[in-house]
Amino acid sequence: MTLICVPIFVEDSASALADAHEALHRGADLVEFRVDSFFTGGRDPAAEGEVERIVAMVSDCKLPCIVTCRPVLEGGQYDGPDDARISLFERLGTVGASGPALRPPRYIDVELLTYTRSENLKQKVNLGVDHPAQVRELSTSLILSTHDFHTRPLDLIRRIEQMFQEPACAVAKVAYRARSLRDNLELLDILQLAQEHGKPMIALGMGPYGLMSRVLAPKFNGFLTFASLRRQSATAPGQPVIGDLVDLYRFRAINSATKVYGVVGDPVEHSISPMVHNAGFEAVGHDGVYLPMPIPAGYEHFKATVLAMLDHPGLDLAGLSVTIPHKENLVRLAREEWAEGDGRWEVDLLSEQCGAGNTLAVRRDGKGRATSFEVRNTDGAAAAGAVFAAVPDLRRVAVLGAGGTARAVAAAFRNRGVEVFIVNRSQTRALALKAELEGLHAEPSLEPSGGVPRDQARLPALRVLEASALIQVKPQAVINCTPVGMAGGPAPKESALSSEVLWNLSDQCVVADCVYRPLTTPLLAQAASRHLRCIDGLAMFLGQAAEQFSLWTDRSAPMQLFQTVARESLA
Ligand code: NAP
């Protein structure tokens, strides 16, 4: 079982013990007392008091603990002499000898660099820990560790081998700043390698790209993962809080067979998809975990990262939600791989028509080998589905915008035989969208997997209109596919449609918005005040998420739960 360890920066021993108590109640297995700013290493009587307070704190702690006194050189705060902290470790490790009432720490953490600096230091550390040549009965074990807060160390493998070779090393730990998602794959490989050597191992990526290695540690039999008690008390960048690790990512349920899913984009840290899909997996009993997967803009980043994750033997990547700026990159990747002879790639008609997809589903055989990669665009169908649910006899719809979402939504309506009016700030862009959608080939270049009409010739024409012309053409529904009204967007306070146009639409017109932050956009607020029926952006979000979920799990999405979780997450 992979342990959850809560690190605690010790300022005073009473608060540290209170935090350790809270960690126990939140589900931690272990705490790490970081004493590097508490312990000065001085030789005066005051410093002796520090040692005794640490001894008492460790002894009083209800959870097993690691004691770490990290020097500045390895990203910690201790700047006293090495001799003093090594003496502290020896005192802690042998504390049982001074009285049975005192409990020693389960582990001490010493940096590989310190441990191998001199034979003298190594011998002094070894005096306080259990190891094959130890003559005393000691119950404290040694974690040897190595850190790099900037990048992957060039000599990483040599450092790991060195730790493996030290007889006193009970657990080896590497932590470095992940430069991209791909660094996680190497960290997971390191865990696998350690298993082959029979050595418990901690291998963690720091920073925003490192979350995958922290959450997936149980899948690769990692010894432990660190989780902070509070968002502001993380001891390393990218450390998750224990509540998220346990409740959101269901860390305790992750095992070697767990399938991995994620949302790929930039940014993805505010995405509500992890909350929705992880809750759904738990509800239907699907053995999967869904993570935010940041990939910076640029096709080369996307291609290299996604292919590396798909090829990784133990990762079991089973599905991706793909968001801005990579929706086009997903279809491009599928086309390129297909053209290079990999016939496992399939693209549905809507993704093919739009040149953009938001979903990847990976099927694997019993040996974990990928047998198909299915690309879909569930955005357009979800928006069209939400509007059709409100207007079953829909024949005329106005799409506001001519960007990526508008393209998918317009194509989805048109595929269902609806006449589409495109209204956009830039007429040139609207005309380009019309030409692009009308000029589509009747057959996609790859095998289509969606169930939409293929005969483009029979599909209705698209019309580009000024917003004011909507008053005459009387659409049965209007859907906003621009970011106007979105919090943090280009025009958060504006309505995507002028009040003059809105007040002159038919009384039966349904007004929908793709924006879901906030749920009630200025457009929907205006429409509601006119007593028009409204569909908020959550309907589209939930629709696209539900189709992804069914594709990945072969089960229907628990819509009520999706709805509740999404609303709570947005609130
Ligand atoms: P996009 O490709 O950047 O398209 C932007 C479109 O909006 C363009 O047509 C642009 O007009 C127009 N626009 C931008 N700022 C404007 C302004 N101030 N006034 C008038 N028009 C403006 O964006 P997208 O990817 O299509 O996304 C559009 C919205 O849909 C976003 O808010 C996104 O969050 C939302 N969305 C929601 C879901 C969901 O699940 N609910 C899914 C996907 C997207 P020009 O051509 O004149 O520049």
Quick overview:
The chain is of the alpha/beta class and 571 residues long. The protein contains 21 helices and 20 strands.
Q: How many beta-strand elements? A: 20
Helix content: 25-40%
Counting DSSP H or I runs of 4 or more residues, the number of helices is 21
Based on CA atoms alone, the radius of gyration comes out at: 29 Å
What does the oligomeric state look like here?
A: single chain
**Bound ligands:** NADP nicotinamide-adenine-dinucleotide phosphate
Question: What general form does the structure show?
Answer: elongated
Key descriptive features of the protein:
571 residues; alpha/beta; eight-stranded parallel sheet; six-stranded mixed sheet; 21 helices; 20 strands; 38% helix; elongated; binds NADP nicotinamide-adenine-dinucleotide phosphate
What report would you give on this structure?
It is a single chain. The chain is an alpha/beta fold and 571 residues long. The protein is built from 21 helices and 20 strands. Helix 3 links the parallel strand 3 and strand 4. Helix 1 (13-25) runs parallel beside helix 2 and helix 3 (82-93) runs parallel beside helix 5 (119-127). The model is unreliable at 441-453 (pLDDT under 50). Bound molecules: NADP nicotinamide-adenine-dinucleotide phosphate. Residues 324, 379, 401-406, 424-426, 429, 481-484, 486, 489-491, 514-516, 537, 540-541, 544 line the site of NADP nicotinamide-adenine-dinucleotide phosphate (NAP).
